[in-house]
Amino acid sequence: MAQPDRVEVLIVGAGPTGAIAASELIAAGFSVTCLEQGDWTHRAAFKGATKDWELSAQRDWHPNPNVRGRAADYPIDVTESDVNPLMYAGVGGATILYGAHWVRALPSDFRVRTLDGVADDWPLTYEDLQPFYEDIDQQMGTAGLGDDPTYPDGEAPPLPPLPIGKIGLRAAQGMDQLGWHWWPAPNAIASKAYRGREACVRRGTCQTGCPEGAKGSADLTHWPEAIRAGVRLITGARVAEITVNAQGLADGAVYIDRDGVRHHVAASTVIVAANGVGTPRLLLMSGRDSFDHGLANSSGLVGRRLMMHPYAAVNGVYEEDLESWLGPAGQSIVSHEFYETDLSRGFVRGAKWQVMPAGGPLGNRSGYGGHAEHGDADGEPDPLAAWGPSFHEAARRTFGRSFEWGIIAEDLPDEANRVVLSDSLVDSDGLPAPKIIYKTSENTRRLLDFHLARAREAHLAAGAIETYDTPLMRDCGWHLLGTTRMGDDPETSVVDQYGRSHDIANLYIYDGSTFVTSTGQNPTATIAALTLRAVRHLIAGRRDQEVAS
Amino acid sequence: MTTPIGMSPTALNTAQRETLVRVLDVLIPAAAGMPSGAEVGVADRWIDEALRLRPDLRDDLLHALETLEPIDAGLEDALRAYAKQHPEAFVAVGVLVSGAYYMDDRARLALGYPGQEDRRLVDDTGDYLDMLERVVERGPIFRPTPAEGAEA
């Protein structure tokens, strides 16, 4: 087994948090190596500007790794899950395919137990995180408008808002009529040239990769400069195990290269940034000779409390042409009208809403065209009802004239929802695949029912002539949270508020795994801000950091 | 089914294309000012492109075409029966033919879809600032961080 020189900090995963950590550490003078199982994704590979965009989005650029099936992706056993986890293995991680919805958590999100009597409080507050939210806004180039009354006062995003377009304006008119909150959406998408990135051109294909390089993905925002500064990024390196020395400190990792050769990278400190499924998977695969239940798992909580944000939507169809294939996608406007708890609704917590475009004819058709509108003589749905002349009539009625109010439901932690190692499925290197055990709760179902009803009202107030519900999407697990939760008590948490393992003093976790509760927001801004706060704390305490030698 | 030498593994043979044309006449006829699937070349050029992008659906398409090929009259009823017997394969056929159809410029033009075109950004804040002022005037909607030691 090859034995390169010891590195001061080893990072597992080149997604946004690995990128942020690497950038900060190299600037502070550390030697840094990052291991990434995937590869670079070059802009020319994205299909947004070509005719094959919609069909390629259903497979080659699908966010579900089980559908994409690339060698860099590990398969995921979802036979016991209501929701499929979504992710991307490669430099930039999930930011390659995310929608760049750059929203913060709210103050109440960090005090759920105190305010609502459920789940747990976080060991930090919104105020602790706010300066890091503002700093990371600058790094990502967030576009938006300040003074949103959803949040305490603070700095406005560095870039002006993207156009809300005809869909956003129509939706806003409905919210205005109802007296409900709405705001032009913040996106990590450049509304003008910013730090080497081009301005958005509204192509609307953000979630299958941005061909223009306008979207704030970590392969563009952080990695080029981090590598110039001296970070060593090794792609095609699938980490099989975090190694631990006789003193109980992390001392590196074993990775498998594309030729199947195993290498050990020796390190003084190890940071795992592999997302809420990949991180617990790696900890559970590690140290199996020395620990009963995987690494850093004296609490027994590694892999537990998985939260994935059940997602529902209401699509509205309008008479006027709203050009609803236009981007960004990205989000147009958002609403937090029903975010905070109101017990009279029959559930706790709430959801963030966002308006998104409907995509091209296939995206639109997948929402509406498959509805069987007529029964046959036996009363069974006619499988041809959406075909023939109806194929065109439905497209005429809905294409360009519809948009979605999407609902991100806060998902409360439940130890029964978890990531475990599959006993039958393996990845292309023979490593055990993760298995997801996940069920939505009664609180979530009530929450979604309420929000779907309100979103229908929002569409109708805006003039929709038809609405269609999507009660719960199976392919919606973008947000992988909670599986190595943070806390002050080592018996009830895996890491502290700075991501440091309670069990292993030089092992850190920087990703959505550390969330205590899920919030009802897209989490990347919070994950990034937490990482910035954590890594700066690590740097500030470097003299006291216990390290492997 | 075997692929003749020299033919792309995603290509269909002549009989399969002829059957596909008849299927297209049922699924995507000319109507509502839109051209038919056969007219824009779904069974010729575009189905090959669709199969290149979705090779995972090839077997389902071939199964449907093989099943329907001997049917002379009453293809619509046969297709309906096939869809009930093989719903997953029928969905696959639908994805392929609709995806192939909308790659053609004639279909796109007739629908008014320019593709995911690029457009210069415009500042449209002036269209909504009056409405946004009313949002601001309604005041903050968040619950502030409670004082240390507070309880629900």
UniProtKB/TrEMBL annotation, chain A:
This is Choline dehydrogenase-like flavoprotein. GO terms for molecular function: FAD binding; oxidoreductase activity, acting on CH-OH group of donors. It holds the Pfam family GMC_oxred_N. Residues 199-310 form the Glucose-methanol-choline oxidoreductase N-terminal domain. Signal peptide: none annotated. Belongs to the GMC oxidoreductase family. The keyword Transport does not apply. It comes from the Bacteria. Keywords: FAD, Flavoprotein, Oxidoreductase. Residues 413-530 form the Glucose-methanol-choline oxidoreductase C-terminal domain. Residues 6-45 form the FAD-binding domain. Residues 140-159, 364-383 are annotated as: Disordered.
Automatic annotation (TrEMBL), chain B:
It comes from the Bacteria. This is Uncharacterized protein.
